[in-house]
Design goal:
Blueprint: H1 2-14, H2 19-44, H3 52-73, E1 84-88, E2 113-115, H4 119-131, E3 137-142, H5 148-162, E4 169-174, H6 185-197, H7 203-210, E5 214-219, H8 229-240, E6 246-251, H9 252-260, E7 271-274, H10 279-287, H11 298-306, H12 311-315, H13 319-332, H14 348-363, H15 381-397, H16 408-412, H17 417-440, H18 444-471, H19 487-520, H20 524-553, H21 566-610, H22 622-636, H23 641-661, H24 664-677, H25 685-694, E8 698-701, E9 704-707, H26 710-719, H27 731-757, E10 765-768, E11 774-780, E12 783-791, E13 796-800, E14 806-808, E15 818-820, E16 826-830, E17 835-840, E18 843-847, E19 863-869, E20 874-879, E21 895-900, E22 911-914, E23 922-927, E24 933-937, E25 942-946, E26 951-955, E27 969-974, E28 981-985, E29 989-995, E30 998-1004, E31 1009-1012, E32 1018-1022, E33 1028-1032, E34 1041-1043, E35 1050-1055, E36 1061-1066, E37 1070-1075
Parallel strand pairs: 3-6, 3-7, 4-5, 5-6
Antiparallel strand pairs: 1-2, 1-7, 8-9, 10-37, 11-12, 12-13, 13-14, 15-16, 16-17, 17-18, 19-20, 20-21, 21-22, 23-24, 24-25, 25-26, 27-28, 28-29, 29-30, 31-32, 32-33, 33-34, 35-36, 36-37
Helix pairs in contact: 1-2, 3-5, 4-5, 6-7, 13-14, 14-15, 14-26, 15-26, 17-18, 17-23, 18-27, 19-20, 19-27, 20-21, 21-22, 21-23
C-alpha cells in the first residue's frame, strides 16, 4: 500500500490536470478497501469457544428424543412388556486379574436383575444398577434375539434420564460398522457421531471425547467379522485405558469362543448374560394380546408347560421369537397349533425359520382390527417381500447392517453411470448451445464456428461431469448452516478447493497446448495466444474458487446436534444441495463473463510486459488492448444482449449442475429411478421404508434403517435365488482407476485435438501480427527479400525476410491496398479525401485530390483492389467497401479509377468510370498483357474491357459461367508467364490454361486468394481453412502440393519477383514465407 501511495503521489505531481480526477477515483477505491477490510474482520471472527458441557447437554437432549421415539416404534412403552432377566455369567470370560484401588483382586460383581413393569421404572432400574459399578464398564452377552440391543437401548435411556449436567453422555453405537484393524476406536466413535448429528463435522464429537463426556455403548461386537474381533477387544482396552467407561454387547457363544481363543478380556468389566425368557413369562405375554377370531393358543401353552425344552419351547425362549410369533398371528391370523407338528418342526431352528419367513406376509396382511392409524397398505405383501429381499441381499453382499441411502448410488449403480451422466449433461449443454446459435446466430461461418464451440463445450461438460461423478462418490449428506463467525476460514477453504479443482482440468490442457504450440507454431502471436489461454485459465480458476467459496460458506460447523433420521437427513441434504448449487451458479453467472474478459485482457498484456512492449506500435498500452478485447467479446455475440444473457445463464446452470452432482441427494434420486424402472425398488422408496418400520420389519438407528434383526435379513437372503449384486472388492481402487483414466483421456483428447486443430508449420519464416487479420501483402521489386503487408486495423508494415527486421509505414494508417512501381516505390490509395500516394522511404511523392465526380458515398469510402500495368504506366483501382476478410459477404461496388504513373513514380489526374450494370457487383480485376483489364463479377462472369476508356466490354471465356467456378466469386489472376487465368470461388475454383489457341478449364478446390509465379507454370491458391495449394498450370493437375501453417483463412498472396519465394497473408494475423525453388520446375 505504501508503494501504491507513493506512485499515486508522483503521478498527481506530474499530471496536475488529472490530479483531481485521480484523487476522486483513488478516494473511491480507498472507501471500497475500507469496506472490504471491515467485512474481512467480520468474517474472520472465530466463534466464541463453547463449554464442552453445553455440547454434552445438547447431545444428550437430542439422543433422548431419538431413542424415546425408537422405543415407541418398537412398542417398548406398551403397558405390558416382555420381561428381561439377566445374571452374572458363569462363563470364563471375566477379567479376574485386575487389581482394585485397594490392591485386592476383583473376583466377581453380582449384577443379577430383571426388567418387568413400567417402561420408565425399567430404564431407571437399569441406570441405577449400572451406576453402582466401580469403573463404569460392562459386558452384556446373550443368545441371538435374547434382547441385548433392547437392553442396551433401555440402559442408554436410563442413563440419559439420570445424567448429571456435567456427566458423560451415553451414545449407543452399532459396532458392525467398525473395522478395528484399520481404525482406532476413538476415531470411529468420533466419525460415527459426526455423520448423523453434526453433518460429518468432527470438531464437537472429538471435543466431547477429549473431555471425557462420552460413554460409548457398543452394540453387537459379534457383528464385526470374526477375524477382527480379537483386534476389537484389544482396541477397546487400549482406548479406555484405566479410567474411561464403556458398555459392550455380544452374543454369548461368540464372546466365549473369542476369549477361549486367546483374546484378552475387557479390563475391569463385569459380564452379565441375558437369560432365556421363562415359559410362564411367554405365556403371560401372549395371553395379554387381543388375537383375531380363530387364533387360539391353548394347545401351544400346554405343550410349552409340558416340554419347555422342546423345539417350540427352545424357539420361544428369546424375545425376538416371541414378538415375531405375536406379529405373525396377530396380523396374519391362523392356528399357531401348526407349530406343534413334529414332522415340520423337529428342532428350534425350523420353528425360528418358519416365523421369520412369515413375518413379511403377516406385516402386510389386512389388519383384523382395522386399526385406523394403519390404514390400507399401498403395497402388497408380494411387492414388499421382493423389495425387502433385494435390500437384504444388497446389505449382505456389502457385509452391512445399516441401510444408508447416500451409499446406494455408489454401490448399486453401474460403473458406466458416470459416463452416462456426463453424456446426459454434455448433450444437454451442446443442444442448448446449438439451439441458441440457431435462435440468435447470424448464419454463415460465424454460426458454424459458434455451433462447433457449443459441441466442444458439451463434450467438455460431459468429461467434467464424469470426473466429478467419480471423484465425489460416497459423500455423506449435509445440512444447511451459516454463521458469520469463522466464515473467512470456510471461504478460504472453499476457494482453495475450487482453484485446485480447476487446476486438475486446465493444467493438462495448458500443458498439451504448450507442447503443440512449441512443436507446430512459433512467433509472438503464438506467445500471445498461449498467454491468453493461461490467464483465462487462471481467471477461470478464480471464478470457480469464488463460486465454491460461496458454496462452502453455507457449510458452517453446526453449533448443536441435530435430531436426525433417514427422512430428515434426506430433506436437509436436499435443501443444502439446492441452496449451495444455486448460490455457486449465481456467482459464476455474475463474475464468469467479467472473469473471462479479465483473463483475455491479462493474457494480451502479459506477453508485452515480458518482451518489453513487443508487438504493434501503440498497442502495448492497456486501454487499446482493453478496447480490442471488449470489441472481440461483443463481436463474439454479435452485440446481442439476449445471447450474452443466454450464455451467462447457461454457464450458471451448468456449474450449478456440477455442484449438485457432488451431493448425495441427486445421486439418490438417480439410483432410486434406475432401480424403480428395473422393478427392484418402489418409486416412493423412503415412504416404503418408513412404512416397513411402522410394521416392525425395520428399525431406525440414527440416520439409517436396519432390519429388525439380523435373522430377518439372513432369512430374506436365504430365500433369494440371485444376489442383488456382487460387491466390488476394491471400490476405492476402481474409483482411482476411473478418475485416472478420465484424466488421461482428457489430456490425450486435448493433445489430439490440439494436434488436429494446429497444423504443422511448413513455412520458411513467419511475420507475426497482433492477432488482427492481415489483408494485403506484396513483394517490393528490385528487393525480392522485402515485402509490405497491410492490416485490417489500419496499419502497414515493411518486413525484410532476410534479417527479420520490420518497421511501420507510419504515414499509412488505413487498411488500403498496395502495389509497387518497377523502381520499388510503393503505390497505395489512402483514406478520404481519396488520394493516390507514391512513397519512397515514407516520403510523399504525389498527393492528388479526390475523384472529379465528387465525394464518395459514405458506404463506399475505401478502394479495395489495386493493379499496376508498369509497361504502360497505368494504375487501376476498384472502389467499394473494405472487406475484413474474403468471405461471401465481401461485395465490390463497381466503380473504378485509372491513374497514369510516370517513370518518376508521380501520378496524374485520375480518370474514373462506372462499368456496365450487368456486372454489378464485381469481385476482382486483373490487368492483361495486352493492356486490357479482366473483371470477375460476383455472378461468376469474366469480362474484358479496353483501357483507358473502359469500353468494349466482352465476355472473355467461352462460357457464360466458367466451368469449375462455384459459389461466390472471389478473385481473378492472370499468369505473367503464359497468360493462364485462375478464378477463385467459395465452393469451387477454376484454372483456364492454353492448349494451342484454346483455353481449357481445370476445376480446382475452393479458394480465397490466388497468385501466379512470374517464372514458372505454377499457381498458388489459399482457402478459408488456411491451406496453401500449389498447382501446375500447364496440365490437368489432380494432386497439388499442400502447404500447412496458417490457422486462419488466406486473405492475400504474392510471389517474389524471381519466383523463389511465396508470401501468404492470413486472417490469423501472420504473413508466412514459403520456399518455391523445389516447385519452379
Amino acid at each position: 500500500m505504501g508503494l501504491v501511495s507513493i506512485g499515486l503521489a508522483v503521478w498527481m505531481m506530474i499530471d496536475k490536470k488529472g490530479a483531481g480526477d485521480l484523487a476522486t477515483v483513488a478516494s473511491l477505491f480507498v472507501g471500497i478497501a475500507s469496506l472490504l477490510s471491515a467485512l474481512v474482520d467480520l468474517f474472520r471472527q472465530e466463534p466464541a469457544p463453547t463449554d464442552p458441557c453445553a455440547y454434552a447437554d445438547d447431545l444428550a437432549h437430542t439422543l433422548r428424543t431419538q431413542w424415546l421415539g425408537e422405543a415407541e416404534a418398537r412398542r417398548l412403552r406398551d403397558p405390558r412388556v416382555l420381561p428381561l432377566t439377566w445374571t452374572t455369567t458363569s462363563r470364563p470370560v471375566i477379567d479376574e486379574s485386575w487389581p482394585s484401588d485397594s490392591g485386592a483382586r476383583i473376583i466377581r460383581v453380582r449384577m443379577d436383575g430383571r426388567l418387568d413393569g413400567r417402561f420408565d421404572d425399567a430404564t431407571a432400574q437399569l441406570a441405577d444398577g449400572y451406576t453402582r459399578l466401580p469403573d463404569g464398564r460392562l459386558v452384556v452377552i446373550g443368545e441371538p434375539g435374547a434382547g441385548k440391543t433392547v437392553l442396551a437401548m433401555l440402559l442408554t435411556l436410563g442413563l440419559l434420564d439420570s445424567r448429571a449436567p456435567d456427566g458423560p453422555v451415553p451414545v449407543l453405537l452399532p459396532a458392525a460398522s467398525w473395522d478395528p484393524v484399520r481404525e482406532r476406536l476413538d476415531d470411529w466413535i468420533v466419525r460415527t457421531l459426526a455423520l448423523p448429528y453434526y453433518s460429518g463435522r468432527e470438531e464437537i464429537p472429538r471435543t466431547l471425547l477429549t473431555h471425557g463426556l462420552l460413554l460409548p455403548v457398543l452394540d453387537g461386537l459379534d457383528e464385526i467379522p470374526e477375524s477382527a474381533r480379537r483386534s476389537a477387544i484389544r482396541g477397546i482396552n487400549q482406548a479406555i485405558g484405566g479410567e474411561r467407561p464403556v458398555v459392550v454387547t455380544c452374543r454369548a457363544n461368540e464372546y466365549e469362543d473369542l476369549i477361549r481363543g486367546g483374546a484378552p478380556t475387557l479390563r475391569r468389566a463385569p459380564v452379565v448374560e441375558v437369560s432365556s425368557v421363562s415359559t410362564e413369562d411367554v405365556i403371560r405375554y401372549l395371553e395379554d394380546v387381543d388375537w383375531p377370531a380363530g387364533t387360539t393358543w391353548g394347545r401351544v401353552f400346554a405343550q410349552l408347560r409340558a416340554q419347555p425344552d422342546g423345539p417350540l419351547g427352545a424357539a420361544l425362549s428369546t424375545p425376538l421369537m416371541v414378538t415375531s410369533a405375536r406379529l405373525v398371528h396377530e396380523r396374519g391370523g391362523g392356528d399357531p397349533g401348526e407349530l406343534l407338528d413334529p414332522g415340520r418342526f423337529d428342532c428350534r431352528y425350523a420353528v425360528e425359520d418358519h416365523l421369520m419367513r412369515q413375518l413379511v406376509n403377516a406385516a402386510y396382511a389386512p389388519d383384523p382390527a382395522d386399526a385406523p392409524e394403519r390404514g390400507e397398505s399401498r403395497w402388497s405383501a408380494e411387492q414388499a417381500r421382493e423389495w425387502l429381499t433385494f435390500l437384504a441381499c444388497y446389505l449382505h453382499d456389502h457385509r452391512e447392517r445399516d441401510l444408508a441411502w447416500w451409499q446406494m448410488s455408489e454401490r448399486l449403480l453401474s460403473r458406466w453411470a458416470g459416463p452416462l451422466v456426463g453424456i446426459g449433461v454434455g448433450g444437454t449443454v451442446a443442444l442448448a448451445g446449438v439451439a441458441a446459435v440457431m435462435i440468435w446466430g447470424t448464419g454463415g461461418s460465424g454460426a458454424r464456428n459458434l455451433g462447433l464451440a457449443a459441441l466442444i463445450s458439451g463434450a467438455g461438460c460431459a468429461l467434467v461431469s464424469m470426473l466429478v461423478w467419480y471423484a465425489t462418490a460416497g459423500r455423506p449428506p449435509g445440512r444447511l448452516s451459516f454463521t458469520f463467525a469463522g466464515s473467512l476460514m470456510r471461504l478460504r477453504r472453499g476457494f482453495g478447493s475450487g482453484v485446485a479443482l480447476a487446476a486438475i482440468f486446465v493444467l493438462p490442457v495448458l500443458a498439451s497446448a504448450a507442447v503443440v504450440n512449441s512443436l507446430a507454431m512459433r512467433g509472438f502471436a503464438v506467445v500471445e495466444l498461449y498467454c491468453e489461454m493461461l490467464l483465462a485459465a487462471v481467471w477461470l480458476a478464480i471464478v470457480i474458487g469464488l463460486a465454491l467459496a460461496a458454496h462452502n460458506g453455507l457449510n458452517a460447523p453446526p453449533a448443536r446436534a441435530a435430531q436426525t433420521g433417514p427422512h430428515t437427513a434426506l430433506a436437509q441434504d436436499r435443501r443444502s444441495a439446492v441452496t449451495g448449487a444455486l448460490l455457486a451458479g449465481v456467482v459464476v453467472g455474475l463474475v464468469g463473463l467479467p472473469g473471462w474478459y479479465a483473463g483475455m485482457l491479462s493474457g494480451a498484456v502479459l506477453p508485452r510486459l515480458l518482451t518489453g512492449g513487443m508487438g504493434w506500435p501503440g498497442e502495448g498500452r492497456v486501454p487499446p488492448l482493453a478496447k480490442r478485447e471488449l470489441t472481440a467479446l461483443r463481436e463474439t455475440f454479435n452485440d446481442d444482449l439476449l445471447a450474452i444473457i443466454g450464455l451467462v445463464v447457461l454457464a450458471a446452470v451448468v456449474f450449478a449442475v456440477q455442484v449438485l452432482l457432488t451431493r448425495a441427494w441427486p445421486r439418490f434420486l438417480l439410483v432410486r429411478a434406475v432401480l424403480a424402472l428395473r422393478g427392484r425398488l418402489p418409486w416412493s422408496l423412503m415412504a416404503f421404508l418408513a412404512d416397513a418400520r411402522r410394521r416392525e420389519l425395520l428399525r431406525q438407528s440414527g440416520g439409517v434403517y436396519q432390519f429388525r434383526h439380523i435373522r430377518l435379513q439372513e432369512s430374506l437372503v436365504g430365500e433369494s435365488a440371485s444376489p442383488a449384486r456382487s460387491p466390488s472388492p476394491q471400490p476405492n481402487a476402481v474409483r482411482r482407476r476411473a478418475v485416472l483414466a478420465a484424466g488421461a483421456a482428457a489430456a490425450a483428447g486435448a493433445i489430439t485435438a490440439g494436434a488436429r486443430v494446429v497444423p504443422r508449420d511448413m513455412s520458411l519464416r513467419v511475420f507475426d501480427g497482433p492477432g488482427d487479420p492481415i489483408t494485403g501483402v506484396a513483394f517490393r521489386p528490385l528487393h525480392g527479400h522485402t515485402l509490405v503487408c497491410t492490416v485490417a486495423i489500419g496499419s502497414s508494415w515493411q518486413w525484410c525476410c532476410r534479417s527479420g527486421q520490420r518497421r511501420s509505414l507510419k504515414g499509412l494508417r488505413v487498411p488500403a491496398p498496395v502495389t509497387f512501381h518497377p523502381d520499388g516505390r510503393l503505390l497505395t490509395v489512402d483514406e478520404d479525401p481519396v488520394r493516390v500516394l507514391g512513397r519512397q522511404d515514407d516520403f510523399l511523392l504525389s498527393d492528388l485530390k479526390h475523384l472529379p465526380e465528387g465525394e464518395p458515398d459514405p458506404g463506399r469510402d475505401k478502394y479495395t483492389m489495386l493493379a499496376l500495368d508498369a509497361k504502360r504506366g497505368r494504375l487501376l483501382g476498384a472502389y467499394g467497401p473494405y472487406p475484413l476478410n474474403l468471405r461471401s459477404e465481401d461485395i465490390g461496388e463497381g466503380d473504378v479509377g485509372l491513374w497514369h504513373v510516370g517513370s518518376d513514380g508521380r501520378v496524374t489526374q485520375p480518370v474514373s468510370a462506372e462499368l456496365e450494370q450487368d456486372l454489378l457487383p464485381f469481385a476482382s480485376l486483373a490487368l492483361l498483357s495486352d493492356g486490357r483489364v479482366a473483371v470477375l463479377s460476383l455472378m461468376n462472369e469474366v469480362w474484358r474491357f479496353e483501357l483507358p476508356e473502359f469500353t468494349g466490354g466482352t465476355r472473355m471465356l467461352p462460357t457464360d459461367r466458367p466451368d469449375g467456378l462455384a459459389g461466390t466469386a472471389r478473385a481473378i489472376a492472370v499468369s505473367p508467364y503464359d497468360g493462364s487465368i485462375a478464378l477463385a470461388g467459395s465452393r469451387g475454383s477454376a484454372l483456364w490454361r492454353y492448349e494451342g489457341q484454346d483455353r481449357v478449364p481445370t476445376p480446382l478446390t475452393p479458394a480465397s486468394a490466388l497468385a501466379f509465379s512470374p517464372r514458372a507454370r505454377l499457381l498458388a491458391t489459399g482457402d478459408d481453412s488456411g491451406l496453401v495449394r500449389l498447382w501446375r498450370s500447364d496440365i490437368h493437375d489432380d494432386d497439388p502440393h499442400v502447404l500447412t501453417g496458417h490457422t486462419g483463412a488466406i486473405t492475400a498472396m504474392d510471389f517474389s519477383p524471381d519466383g523463389t519465394r511465396l508470401a501468404t497473408a492470413g486472417a490469423d494475423g501472420t504473413v508466412r514465407l514459403w520456399d518455391m525453388r523445389r516447385f519452379d520446375k
